[in-house]
# Entry
Amino acid sequence: MDAIELLCHDHRMVEQLFRDYAAAGSDSQRRGVVEIIVRELSKHAALEELMFYPLAKKVLPDGQQEIDEHLAEHLSVKKTLLALDGLPAGDDQTDALMAELQQEIEHHVQEEESDLMPRLRAAVDQQTLDELGQALDEAKQTAPTRPHPQAPDEPPSLALAAPVAAIYDRLRDRLQKRPLT
# Structure
């Protein structure tokens, strides 16, 4: 898959996770879905910030302004993810935070897929998108799995912080026996 196809695939997966959350039959099932959503969205955001957004910023005429808007949306999502990550199964705040997160994600996905991604596809060649897609796919294996709203969200600082955060996150995931995806 090229980079845009891969990121859109991630979007579809998260949409399915929101449906899984709504269909879950118990607090423990809902908590399991929340943990997977936290993991997948944290990885997705980190990879967009590290690899996808820098390309868009470079090749689109208004790239800096557009990416700044997307980074602001990411920060809001990360804060919601952090709040969700700290809740125990069955917490009364979970449903409201999941509804807030779903609304944030739907808005963000709609903007990316209807505007940013088509403009980026038109601005770069297919080989560039294919190579970036391969790099994104490989980087998923080592991306942070938890939200880090205070961490840098742009290279080069992000490139230094992300691997450290990822190691820490994966250690915490193992210790807490979180689901792996």
User: Anything to note?
Assistant: The helical segments are 3-23, 27-59, 63-85, 94-123, 126-139, 157-175. The chain has one domain: 3-175.
